[in-house]
Specification:
With about 250 residues, this protein is of the alpha+beta class. The protein is built from 8 helices and 5 strands; from the N terminus they run αααβαααβαβββα. A hairpin with a 2-residue loop joins β4 (about 195-205) and β5 (about 205-220).
């Protein structure tokens, strides 16, 4: 007597179904990871222009991570060491008239000038300003990355560097000319910070120096929100301390 095809039991059907689901999930996960890696590579290629022939893409990437406040010690040390000129950290409300080329030529400290930038100072700023935490939580947005040969015109912005500042850079080093080498612009959304980093290169004879000029601006609404949150946490604790001391 001929027998028809064997009908699988319900348990076997369930086992085969789970095996197919697991294989399908693994394939989807692998494809998803591959897609994410491709997206990340594509994003980096868009953010970092590789047109500058005088500098490698790795150097540009180091500066991008350095100003994004999330970089390893080796790359941070290279970036810190490269700034051998004037270093300025100033708010967008700075007064251009306060920058006088005569004072810069006599080595008088300029407004908002940092005489020495060290690796320790850099990481202290990363922690104190919460910018490193902001980037770690993916709350930092890159607005602009421009190299030396980028012909993109500079649009008017509150974070622009006045010509008086550039003239002070030239006078300090006795250079014949000062050119913009790189420009980075970030918005640290978690703390409401908008900042632009400008790299200026001064040339004098066969030598040149690299200057760093950072201009920043805080979002008052974000700062007010942070102040309210801190006050909401601090006031109950202060009230408890006063009750323990018997002041009230």
């Amino acid at each position: 007597e001929e027998q028809g095809p064997q009908v699988p039991s319900p348990r076997e059907v369930q086992r085969v179904g789970w095996a197919n689901r697991t294989a399908s999930a693994s394939a989807c996960s692998a494809n998803d990871q591959t897609g994410r890696k491709a997206d990340c590579v594509h994003m980096l290629l868009r953010l970092i222009p590789l047109a500058a022939a005088s500098e490698s893409s790795q150097q540009m990437l180091d500066y991008w991570r350095f100003h994004g406040m999330l970089v390893g010690p080796a790359a941070a040390r290279r970036c810190v060491k490269s700034f051998d000129g004037v270093i300025l950290f100033m708010p967008s409300t700075y007064d251009p008239a306060a920058f006088q080329a005569e004072d810069a030529a006599q080595n008088v400290s300029l407004p908002f000038e940092v005489r020495t930038l060290t690796l320790l100072k850099y990481y202290a700023l990363v922690l104190w300003s919460l910018t490193g935490l902001c980037t770690l939580l993916r709350q930092t947005r890159t607005l602009d990355v421009a190299g030396e040969d980028d012909e993109k015109p500079l649009l008017p912005t509150p974070l622009a560097v006045h010509r008086n500042v550039v003239e002070c850079l030239r006078a300090r080093t006795g250079a014949s000319r000062v050119t913009l080498a790189r420009r980075f612009e970030f918005r640290f959304r978690l703390i409401g910070l908008w900042v632009a980093m400008h790299h200026y290169r001064s040339a004098s004879g066969g030598e040149g120096r690299l200057h760093l000029v950072e201009v920043y601006q805080f979002d008052r609404r974000v700062c007010a929100a942070w102040a309210c949150a801190i006050a909401a946490l601090a006031i109950p604790q202060l009230w408890r301390v006063l009750l323990l001391l018997g002041v009230t």
